[in-house]
Amino acid sequence: MTNYTSVHDVTDLDALVKEALHLKQNPYKYKHLGENRTLGLIFLNPSLRTRMSTQKAAVNLGMNVMVMNIDKEGWALETQEGAVMNGTTVEHIKDAAAVMGQYCDILGLRSFPKLQNREEDYSENLLQSFIRYSKVPVISLESATRHPLQSLADLITITENTPAGKRPKVVLTWAPHIKALPQCVANSFAEWMGRAAVDLVITQPQGFELAETFTRGAAITHNQQEALQDADFVYVKNWSAYEDYGKVLPDAQDWMLTNEKLQVSNNAKVMHCLPVRRNVELSDQILDGPNSLVLEQANNRTYAAQAVLKTLLNNYEV
Ligand code: CP
């Protein structure tokens, strides 16, 4: 693993999940590994879980951590190659990333899509520029198209809650929301489940299909109730449209997940990456009920990040 930006950076998924579960049992065993190593966490957008869990993971491994909310504390970044910088941007990404790469051994970057220009968002220009110019391993803390630390934590959680030898039915269901959200959590979850030993069904309203590159191998239906039949896990998430890029669906409250809808499932466990809009995306009853895995998912964010950081730190020792 050179960088960690998607499931494609992972050679052996099972081994990475096993590593995370080992670290969950032995969080401080590798405290020596990060000695005199610095992780820089760069945020262009808000975060609770990613920021705190990745910081905790690094500290568990003995690393120093620097966190920068670059959108508020840094200079306004220019991303266009060859730009004449006589406007509002103050520092070019190639200079900023190169400097941060001198201060840090590993960098993490959170950069959401703007949801205005699909081609621009899906080019992942900012993340790729960080990789190109920092010259150190880069971890995606959620990019324009993917959220791989979340997806690893989700797979860890599904693994922990699946009896040995069983191939679970996992349903990713679209949920209502009041504003346009990125496709990245859903893209990433679909892509990871495509590599895992699960049967994935994705259900969403017409016009809210994800890009095919992420959903290969999944069954796709517009009928939510049909999708929920015999489900072992139900992952709830809103995303804005990929085709009519960034479009939202007003008055979609009938897509909110309720216990009533789950009656056809196999007593399904319910997942959400958080933050969640209660009683919009899914009901209080589910979130506070015995089948909710949302806090387990959030807890596993630490061990997902720790497994990734440990893998990258091990590379330094080679
Ligand atoms: N799930 C997740 O990434 O949470 P934050 O946005 O709070 O980091």
What order do the helices and strands come in, and which of them pair?
Elements: H1 13-25, E1 38-43, H2 49-60, E2 64-69, H3 70-73, E3 77-78, E4 91-92, H4 93-103, E5 106-110, H5 118-122, H6 125-134, E6 138-140, H7 148-160, E7 169-174, H8 184-195, E8 199-203, H9 212-215, E9 219-221, H10 224-228, E10 233-237, H11 259-262, E11 269-271, H12 284-287, H13 294-317
Parallel strand pairs: 1-2, 1-5, 3-4, 5-6, 7-8, 7-10, 8-9, 10-11
Helix pairs in contact: 1-7, 1-13, 2-13, 4-6, 7-8, 7-13
Phosphoric acid mono(formamide)ester (CP) binds at residues 47-50, 142, 150, 273-275.
Name the features:
single chain; 318 residues; alpha/beta; Rossmann fold; 2 domains; five-stranded parallel β-sheet; four-stranded parallel β-sheet; 11 strands; globular; binds phosphoric acid mono(formamide)ester
